[in-house]
């Protein structure tokens, strides 16, 4: 198999300034894809709304930008294109897909729904009864999380239908339907994303377009590393991080799905990265193959 199995493919990865989106974009680039890297954070203008989590992380600067990620995609072997887009704004999302269609002669192979507003209301409390969590979590996780994915899918769908092919991957959290006790809002939003991916699959299946929900384990995102006062080079020194995986492990799962000519057989499914690693034979960046994260 070619070491650039996605050469010629065009992908849009939303919320790719940092974390999961960045890891996905880099692995798609390593596989040879042209990747539109979207989000609100640029080198000259950081996204608003992160003051609370930045204070909890004891840092002033928001890590990452779409510009940084796009350049890394190109260095990895693909072509990275940074496009600032507020995914809560339908007009901006539609303009994004119009640009992709114009620049790529109508080609679009992959949409990764990853833009997530949940960090904007994170207050350091994860495990608490639902009546003790702020109602603002609904706005950040549902209106600026689930809704983001619906808008992007809605704008991308006509492009996929026209070509009678394509794949939508929605990043989420899923452990076989088990309840994530202690954070009802998070559990509800992530469960809604799983159902959204399933529902979209039903409507797009007749057109040869696949839709799946994809769940990573506990990722060593920039904010997780900051919270444990470490970095990617030294995370091994923090025992609580022993079960973590890099965002690029998730990225390799997305790249494997995008390169699979039989991906339609998985449409509508909720998938776990650890399971796909065994199916497709990929590892994390350190050579390990972390098992699926389970509660």
Automatic annotation (TrEMBL):
InterPro entries: NAD(P)-bd_dom_sf (IPR036291), SDR_fam (IPR002347)
Designated name of the protein: SDR family oxidoreductase
Originating organism: Piscinibacter gummiphilus
Classification of source organism: Bacteria, Pseudomonadati, Pseudomonadota, Betaproteobacteria, Burkholderiales
């Amino acid at each position: 198999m070619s070491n650039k199995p996605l050469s010629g493919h065009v992908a849009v990865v939303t919320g790719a300034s940092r974390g999961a989106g960045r890891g996905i974009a880099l692995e798609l680039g390593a596989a040879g894809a042209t990747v539109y890297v979207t989000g609100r954070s640029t080198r000259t203008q950081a996204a608003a709304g992160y003051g609370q989590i930045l204070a909890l992380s004891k840092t002033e600067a928001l890590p990452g930008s779409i510009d940084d990620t796009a350049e890394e995609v190109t260095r990895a072997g693909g072509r990275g294109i940074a496009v600032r887009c507020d995914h809560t704004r339908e007009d901006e999302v539609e303009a994004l897909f119009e640009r992709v269609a114009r620049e790529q002669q109508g080609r679009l192979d992959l949409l990764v729904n990853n833009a997530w507003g949940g960090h904007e209301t994170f207050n350091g409390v994860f495990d608490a009864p639902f009546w003790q969590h702020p109602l603002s979590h609904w706005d950040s996780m549902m209106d600026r999380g689930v809704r983001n994915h619906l808008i992007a899918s809605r704008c991308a769908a006509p492009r996929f239908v026209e070509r009678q092919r394509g794949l939508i991957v929605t990043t989420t959290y899923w452990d076989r339907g088990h309840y994530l006790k202690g954070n009802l809002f998070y559990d509800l939003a992530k469960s809604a994303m799983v159902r959204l991916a399933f529902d979209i699959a039903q409507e797009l299946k007749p057109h040869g377009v696949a839709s799946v929900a994809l769940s990573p384990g506990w990722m060593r995102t920039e904010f997780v590393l900051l919270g444990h006062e470490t970095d990617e080079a030294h995370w091994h020194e923090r025992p609580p991080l022993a079960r973590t995986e890099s965002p690029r492990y998730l990225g390799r799962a997305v790249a494997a799905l995008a390169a699979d000519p039989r991906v339609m057989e998985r449409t509508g499914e909720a998938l776990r990265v650890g399971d796909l690693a065994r199916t497709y034979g990929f590892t994390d960046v350190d050579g390990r193959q972390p098992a699926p994260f389970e509660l």
